[in-house]
């Protein structure tokens, strides 16, 4: 089972929403150790120094200011694999992870984790430097450059194209490069006239090439071809034993988390400043990226419907991408 988790983590890119922007050493939120009378349980959280980690920034600040229901000690790591390992080892109670990695943790030890609430919608974009791409079908006969071959990125791109009537390799040629950093450089110098990438790489590419435009929102295309199921790529995941033993703390966390996610989605400048404060990314980069990150809060049955649909698609593309088997209904936290 450990091998299953390792394989899933190796395929982690998840559109690079969870690719670390800093080093792998954890950064603590700086929350004070003694809870005030207003704060309940002490809850340990693992996040990632990445765009997905931005949704935790307000929660971290509010906890330090004693404005949350629980007292949180949040540690941000350089990659999602480390955050997942901390959760699996019981060193933290909750982690913000890619949904496919959460499924792999569940497969490693059936029922060991539960998906509480989603915080990231899919945010891949086709970048066009030619000025000719008006919609997805403009890619017919074109070569598109991408990163993340053999990962969720590839499976989702293939799914959208295939369910739009475009066959990869016949109608659209996809050329994969080693990293999104390389892809940004290729857009900048004109080697990649068409490319697919997420934030914050999108903003960087647009800034480096004045001819580059965000041409097609693949998250929107996903909604179109998936019967309205949202592309929920990231979520707060808790140890099942923690959920069972701390019911009120979990409910309070969900409210605090929702407040933090919705603040991030609606307050770009303030959230960008917090992103820099907590060493997630520089404020100027975050400010450009946040409007396109797909930060949103989802829970309950709508979350379950969308995530289960996504995991089914990933399973059919590569079963090991979700740990070798699909999670049961107990994977999804049910609000009382």
Automatic annotation (TrEMBL):
Superkingdom of this protein's organism: Bacteria
Alphabetically ordered keywords of this record: Lyase, Menaquinone biosynthesis, Signal
UniProt pathway: Quinol/quinone metabolism; menaquinone biosynthesis
Matches recorded under InterPro entries: Menaquinone_biosynth, UCP027386_ABC_sbc_TM0202
Keyword Signal: yes
SUPFAM superfamilies xref list: Periplasmic binding protein-like II
Biological processes annotated in GO: menaquinone biosynthetic process
Keyword Oxidoreductase set for record: no
Signal peptide from the UniProt entry: 1-19
Alphabetized GO MF terms: lyase activity
PANTHER family assigned to the protein according to its UniProt record, in alphabetical order: ABC TRANSPORTER, SUBSTRATE-BINDING LIPOPROTEIN (PTHR30024:SF46), ALIPHATIC SULFONATES-BINDING PROTEIN-RELATED (PTHR30024)
Name of the protein: ABC-type taurine transport system, periplasmic component
